[in-house]
Amino acid sequence: MELLKRLKSKSTSLKRAKDFRLVIFDLDHTLISVASSYHYVKTLYRKGILSLRQILQAVFIRWKFFLTSMSLEDLHHLVFEKMLKGFSLDDLEAHVEELIRELLPMAIYEPAFRELKIAQKQGDYIVLLSSAPDFLVRAFASYFEIEHWECTVYAVDKRKRLCDIANLMVGSKKMQSFVKLRTQLGISKEQTVVYSDSYDDLPLFLQAGQPIAVNPDRKLAKIARKLHWRVI
């Protein structure tokens, strides 16, 4: 309903559905050249919120993900259980703006950012789909002036402490959100564009009229070459 309301409110400025595209951007290693969550962990360490033991644990988990067959979903659950569960949401949100100031604009990946600005100028409907947590993605979406975003959401208890992962925005979940948006907008597959760096987003890429691999990981780069997808 919220999506449809926003579309109606823009009815005087938006072109008819057949004239604009649905454009999906990932965040990490796509619009920005780094992993936002990993850098935020380092910010929390500098602020004394995380201990040295916890930061070393984060480094270990990150390398385990890169060097083994661990899935992105497993990575998120492991980080949550080992590092985030029980943390105050207010404490986690308190230093997000500082992270934004530290990373941006230096960490912007210019090729993807230029295409974002072109899509915004054309009046396309732009969505940020990220596996990063909502308190980070919300801030990045605001910086990039993207009105619609969907991401990982943590559940909190009565004391506003993280207790579970309510919604994990990875792989097939991104694809489901994308198909739902496309249906609501009445847009054909040919009018859709997806920008991402990760093989994990393959289900999303396969639903796009124009899949564009951004700084692709090894598996995605191989598929992009085989299927003649554009790479930036």
Descriptive report:
The protein contains 11 helices and 7 strands. It has helices at residues 2-9, 36-46, 52-67, 72-84, 89-93, 96-103, 110-122, 134-143, 171-185, 202-205, 218-227; strands at 22-25, 125-133, 148-156, 162-167, 192-196, 210-213, 230-231. Strands 4-3-2-1-5-6-7 form a 7-stranded mixed β-sheet. Helix 2 packs antiparallel against helix 3 (52-67) and helix 3 (52-67) runs antiparallel to helix 4. The two termini are 34 Å apart.
In short, what is this structure?
With 232 residues, the chain is of the alpha/beta class. The chain has helices at 2-9, 36-46, 52-67, 72-84, 89-93, 96-103, 110-122, 134-143, 171-185, 202-205, 218-227, and strands spanning 22-25, 125-133, 148-156, 162-167, 192-196, 210-213, 230-231. The chain folds into two domains: 2-34 and 107-231, HAD superfamily/HAD-like (Rossmann fold, 3-Layer(aba) Sandwich); 36-101.
On the 0 to 100 scale, the average pLDDT is 90
Q: What strand order characterises the main sheet?
A: 4-3-2-1-5-6-7
Element pattern in H and E: HEHHHHHHEHEEHEHEHE
How many domains make up the 3D coordinates? 2
CATH architecture of the largest domain, please? 3-Layer(aba) Sandwich
Tally of strands: 7
CATH topology assignment of the largest domain: Rossmann fold
Low-confidence parts: 8-17
Query: β content, as a range?
Result: 15-25%
Q: Specify the number of helices.
A: 11
Keywords:
11 helices; 232 residues; 17% strand; Rossmann fold; globular; alpha/beta; seven-stranded mixed sheet
